[in-house]
UniProtKB/TrEMBL annotation:
Subcellular localization, as worded in the UniProt entry: Cytoplasmic vesicle, Clathrin-coated vesicle membrane
Gene Ontology CC: one annotated term: clathrin adaptor complex
One Pfam short name: Adap_comp_sub
Protein name (Swiss-Prot/TrEMBL): Adaptor related protein complex 1 subunit mu 3
Gene from which this protein is expressed: ap1m3
Domain MHD: 169-374
Example GO BP: intracellular protein transport
Organism of derivation: Dicentrarchus labrax (European seabass)
Top-level taxon: Eukaryota
Cleavable signal peptide: 1-19
Keywords: Cytoplasmic vesicle, Membrane, Protein transport, Signal, Transport
Family: Belongs to the adaptor complexes medium subunit family.
InterPro entries xrefs: Adaptor_comp_med_subunit, AP2_Mu_C_sf, AP_mu_sigma_su, Clathrin_mu, Clathrin_mu_CS, Longin-like_dom_sf, MHD
Length: 374
């Protein structure tokens, strides 16, 4: 819960671009104390994501040349406030492509309209840009006679999906993407390993379908007495708001009415020991004055010659860190599997689910469009 929200521009001096006092209980001049406190903390190497002045608390993040600051006098949920700040950045970027001082100045009306919609009396409301774009546009609004009616998606129980969606061919494309973060020391020992997984959807379905997803979840298999089957113990699971959390907590069933188009259904993390999928051993030979040769090893042989300026030093430099980017289709490191993906819609139409597995190095990579049935 946030009482007030500011976007600050700080070139040579503090300048408030936009602000909104949601609860009316804040002195808007309190923001003048924020930047001096922050600069003092920076000089003392005590930077923190929250600073205080008297009974006022400033929770802030920096993006480009802007500071986004939420201010409160209450014992607010800090995690919720920071989640909102990052979400509002995402909303602004989807509207303006880039969030910076110039884009804010060029779109003051739209910015204030968005700020009024995403939060009400200090509580976050609709932050889905697809829904917001249905009734907040950058072309402005025409005056209508009579009381304005809110869009159905806002008042509907399923606010993330519009009514009356129709497609000729009904399909669901699911990507199970696992990113492997692995740090290996020079002597070959694994210092840190982590698997970060996401399940992304591209939904092309008519009506208001209900989807049910079954995974080889360890907890589910233990409940149903199938402990001998190959399972995955998911940690730090995060769901899209469409997932019925109460049902998942009761019987681990992932049931939901999906958003139309592309969305991220869930994410998870596994802190587990991972054997390196790709192993690299480098050998560097230094030749006199002007040439260095690196030889590749193991499965693939690589020879590379670099033309260098005159090198007089005979000292061998330490081996440089090596970063490997890779992508492996049809494979997940954790062993997670989609056991089923059921599509239920009252009209009874037939729909095809498609599933694709991808393992990649940490970070986002492009992948080919090859799907299989679950």
């Amino acid at each position: 819960m946030s009482s007030a929200f500011y976007i600050l521009f700080f070139p040579l001096w503090i300048q408030v671009l936009v602000c909104r006092n949601y609860m009316g209980n804040m002195d808007m001049n309190e923001i003048d104390h924020f930047m001096p406190i922050l600069m003092k903390r920076e000089e003392e190497a005590e930077m923190t994501p929250m600073v205080s002045h008297g009974s006022s608390h400033f929770l802030w993040i920096k993006h480009s040349n802007l500071y986004l600051v939420a201010m409160t006098k209450k014992n607010a949920n800090a995690a919720l406030v920071f989640s909102f700040l990052y979400k509002i950045i995402q909303v602004f970027k989807e509207y303006f492509k880039e969030l910076e001082e110039e884009s804010i100045r060029d779109n003051f009306v739209t910015v204030y309209e968005l700020m009024d919609e995403v939060m009400d009396f200090g509580f976050p409301q609709t932050t889905d840009s697809k829904i917001l774009q249905e009734y907040i546009t950058q072309q402005g609004h025409k005056l209508e006679v009579g009381a304005p009616r809110p869009p159905a998606t806002v008042t509907n129980a399923v606010s993330w999906r519009s009514e009356g969606i129709k497609y000729r061919k009904n399909e669901v494309f699911m990507d199970v993407i696992e990113s492997v973060n692995l740090l290996v020391s020079a002597n070959g020992s694994v210092l840190r390993s982590e698997i970060v997984g996401t399940i992304k959807l591209k939904v092309v379905l008519s009506g208001m379908p209900e989807l049910r997803l079954g995974l080889n979840d360890k907890v589910l298999f233990e409940i149903t007495g199938r402990e001998k089957s190959k399972t995955v113990e998911l940690e730090d699971v995060k769901f899209h708001q469409c997932v019925r959390l109460s049902r998942f907590e009761n019987d681990r069933t992932i049931s939901f009415i999906p958003p139309d188009g592309e969305s991220e259904l869930m994410s998870y993390r596994l802190n587990t020991t991972v054997k390196p999928l790709i192993w690299i051993e480098s050998v560097i030979e230094k030749f006199s004055h002007s040439r260095v040769e690196i030889k590749g090893g193991k499965e693939y042989m690589m020879r590379a010659h670099f033309g260098l300026p005159s090198v007089e030093s005979e000292e061998l430099e330490a081996k440089r860190p090596i970063t490997v980017n890779f992508e492996i289709p049809y494979f997940t490191v954790s062993g997670i599997q989609v056991r089923y993906l059921k599509i239920i819609e009252k009209s009874g139409y037939q729909a095809l689910p498609w599933v694709r597995y991808i393992t990649q190095s940490g970070g986002e990579n492009k992948h080919t469009d090859i799907y299989t049935h679950p």
